[in-house]
C-alpha cells in the first residue's frame, strides 16, 4: 500500500502538536484513527517516527528530517487544489477564439475587454481566419470557440445564434441613389458595384439573391476584404453591398447606409466542438458577448439597419 496524503498530513500535525489527541481534534477524527494512520505510515516507510513516553510522544531524528519534505509535498498539493478551484470557477486558464476578420475587429473587442475585467488572470488568444478555417480550428480543438456566419454545414460543431442583421448598400452621399430610403437590387443593374467574394457567406447569399432576381449587374468589383471595399466607396469606385458588421469599424463614417430589398438576412453564430463539453470560459465569454451584441444592434439600428440578438435560422 502506498503512502497517502492523509497519512502525511497526520504526520505533520503530530510533529506540530506533539500530541495525538490534539492532532485528532484538528483533523476532526478520533484519536485511534490518528494512531492507526501513523502506524500504517511507519510500516510503509520502514521507519520509527515517534517514540512514546507514557501519554507523550517525541519525534525521532528521521521524523525531523522528513518534516520539510512532508511540508513541501502538502504545500504543492495546496497549490494544485487552489489551481483546480480557479479553473473550476473559470477564474484562470486560457481561452482560444477563432473568428472571421470583420467580427474579430469590430464585435469581439468589447466582449474581450469586459471578460478580462472579470477574469484578469485568463489568457485570451484571438485569431482571425476565413470561415472554413474557423470551423476547422474549432472542429480539431485548435480553438475553444469560433465565430462565423451561418449556415455551418459541419456535424462536428454546434452553433449558438449571436446577431442577425440584413445586408446593406454603402454609398457616397453624392451618389444618385443616396436619397433613397432603401435600394432594390434592380437599382444596381447599371451601377459599379463592389461585391464580397462568394467564398464569404454574405457574398454567397448576395450572389444567390442576384441570380434569383435575374438582375444583371454589368460592372462588378469583387473583393474578400471589406475594409478595402469601404475605402473604394469613399474614393468613388462604386457602391458596396455588404453585411453591416464592418461598419462598426468606423470606416463607414460619412457614408450613406441603406438596406437592400429584397432583404438578405445574415446570421452571425458562435460555434463549439460537439465531441467535448463546452469549456467554462467559453460559457462565461458568451455571457459577456450578449450585452456587447445588444449595444452593437443598437448601433446598427442607428445606422438604419434592423438588427436583433440571438435570433435567426442558424
From TrEMBL:
GO BP annotation list: positive regulation of gene expression
Signal peptide residues on this chain, from the entry's feature table: none
UniProtKB keywords: DNA-binding, Transcription, Transcription regulation
Keyword Transcription regulation: yes
PROSITE patterns xrefs: HTH_LYSR
Domain HTH lysR-type: 3-60
Pfam families tied to this protein: HTH_1 (PF00126), LysR_substrate (PF03466)
Gene Ontology MF: a single term: sequence-specific DNA binding
Family indicated by similarity: Belongs to the LysR transcriptional regulatory family.
Protein name per UniProt: LysR family transcriptional regulator
Species in which this protein is naturally found: Acidisoma cellulosilyticum
Amino acid at each position: 500500500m502506498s503512502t497517502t496524503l492523509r497519512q502525511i498530513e497526520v504526520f505533520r500535525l503530530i510533529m506540530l502538536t506533539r500530541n495525538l489527541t490534539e492532532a485528532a481534534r484538528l483533523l476532526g477524527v478520533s484519536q485511534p484513527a490518528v494512531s492507526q494512520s501513523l502506524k500504517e505510515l511507519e510500516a510503509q516507510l520502514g521507519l520509527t517516527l515517534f517514540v512514546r513516553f507514557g501519554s507523550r510522544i517525541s519525534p525521532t531524528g528521521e521524523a525531523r528530517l522528513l518534516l520539510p519534505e512532508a511540508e513541501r509535498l502538502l504545500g504543492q498539493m495546496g497549490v494544485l487544489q487552489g489551481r483546480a478551484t480557479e479553473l473550476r470557477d473559470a477564474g484562470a486558464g486560457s481561452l482560444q477564439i477563432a473568428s472571421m476578420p470583420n467580427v474579430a475587429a469590430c464585435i469581439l473587442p468589447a466582449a474581450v475587454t469586459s471578460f478580462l475585467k472579470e477574469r484578469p488572470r485568463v489568457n485570451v488568444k484571438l485569431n482571425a481566419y476565413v470561415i472554413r478555417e474557423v470551423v476547422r480550428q474549432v472542429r480539431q480543438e485548435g480553438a475553444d470557440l469560433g465565430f462565423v456566419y451561418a449556415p455551418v454545414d459541419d456535424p462536428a460543431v454546434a452553433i449558438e445564434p449571436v446577431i442577425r442583421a440584413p445586408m446593406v448598400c454603402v454609398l457616397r452621399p453624392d451618389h444618385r441613389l443616396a436619397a433613397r430610403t432603401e435600394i432594390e437590387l434592380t437599382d444596381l443593374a447599371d451601377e459599379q458595384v463592389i461585391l464580397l467574394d462568394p467564398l464569404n457567406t454574405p457574398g454567397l447569399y448576395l450572389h444567390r439573391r442576384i441570380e434569383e432576381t435575374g438582375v444583371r449587374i454589368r460592372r462588378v468589383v469583387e473583393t474578400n476584404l471589406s475594409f478595402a471595399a469601404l475605402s473604394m466607396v469613399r474614393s468613388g469606385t462604386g457602391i458596396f453591398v455588404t453585411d453591416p458588421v464592418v461598419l462598426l469599424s468606423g470606416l463607414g463614417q460619412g457614408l450613406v447606409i441603406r438596406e437592400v430589398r429584397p432583404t438578405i438576412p445574415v446570421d452571425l453564430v458562435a460555434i463549439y466542438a460537439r465531441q467535448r463539453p463546452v469549456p467554462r470560459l467559453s460559457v462565461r465569454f458568451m455571457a459577456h458577448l450578449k450585452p456587447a451584441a445588444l449595444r452593437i444592434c443598437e448601433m446598427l439600428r442607428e445606422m438604419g439597419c434592423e438588427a436583433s440578438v440571438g435570433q435567426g435560422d442558424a
